């Protein structure tokens, strides 16, 4: 929930709720009549948007596949009344970075996600990590994964062993996720 977003004299409160196969965005405007609201929530690469509804009625939208996400682009006029937008989709395997805490001044040792590319049979994840270290990324819908090359699936995480190299060197590594 994000509250008290000010634009001139207008104010907006926005609730974002993600479920298994939908996203609901509730917008409560105040003194905002005449504004247009553009929403572009991100879904994992490979998710298929099936419908977008406003107050329960289907509306026009643009399904956009970006480099590493799928988006439903929606633009709607704002009236001075709450509005509820629901984006329905077919879920797919989604990859996300695991939050790693570091201290001020600490050396950079984290995994870098370089790219995520959708292919006919799955996803190709390119990462960089320290030589000889094992990292992990999170997975949404791991039950859709039929095989992995370059990593190992453990429940809702993929463990990624980085090949050996020079100490302290970041090595590029590719993980193929079949679905």
Give a short overview.
The protein has 179 residues and is mainly beta. 0% of the residues lie in helices and 61% in strands.
What tags apply to this protein structure?
single chain; 179 residues; mainly beta; 6-stranded antiparallel β-sheet; 4-stranded antiparallel β-sheet; elongated
Structural write-up:
The chain has 179 residues and is mainly β. The chain is built from no helices and 18 strands. It has a six-stranded antiparallel sheet, with no helix packed on it. It is elongated.
Shape label: elongated
Oligomer: single chain
Distance between the termini: 33 Å
The helix-strand sequence is: EEEEEEEEEEEEEEEEEE
Side-by-side strand order of the widest sheet: 1-2-3-10-6-7
Give the integer mean of the pLDDT values.
Answer: 93
Unreliable runs: none
| Strand percentage | over 45%
How many beta-strand runs? 18
Binned, the helix content reads: under 10%
Number of helices in the DSSP assignment:
0
Structural class label = mainly beta
Query: What does the main sheet amount to?
Result: 6 strands, antiparallel
Over the alpha carbons, how many angstroms does the gyration radius reach? 20 Å
């Amino acid at each position: 929930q994000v509250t008290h977003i000010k634009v001139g004299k207008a104010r907006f409160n926005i609730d974002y709720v993600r479920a298994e196969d939908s996203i609901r965005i509730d917008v409560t405007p105040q003194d905002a009549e005449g504004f247009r609201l553009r929403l572009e929530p991100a879904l994992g690469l490979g998710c298929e948007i099936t419908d977008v509804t406003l107050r329960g009625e289907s509306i026009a939208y643009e399904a956009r596949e970006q480099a590493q996400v799928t988006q439903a682009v929606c633009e709607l006029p704002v009236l001075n009344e709450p509005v509820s937008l629901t984006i329905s989709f077919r879920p797919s395997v989604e990859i996300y970075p695991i939050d790693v805490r570091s201290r001020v001044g600490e050396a950079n040792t984290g995994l870098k996600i370089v790219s995520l590319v959708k292919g006919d049979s799955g996803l190709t994840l390119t990462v960089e990590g320290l030589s000889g270290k094992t990292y992990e990324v999170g997975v949404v819908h791991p039950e859709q994964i039929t095989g992995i090359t370059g990593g190992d699936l453990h429940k809702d995480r993929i463990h990624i062993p980085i090949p050996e190299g020079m100490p302290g060197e970041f090595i590029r590594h590719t993980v193929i996720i079949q679905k």
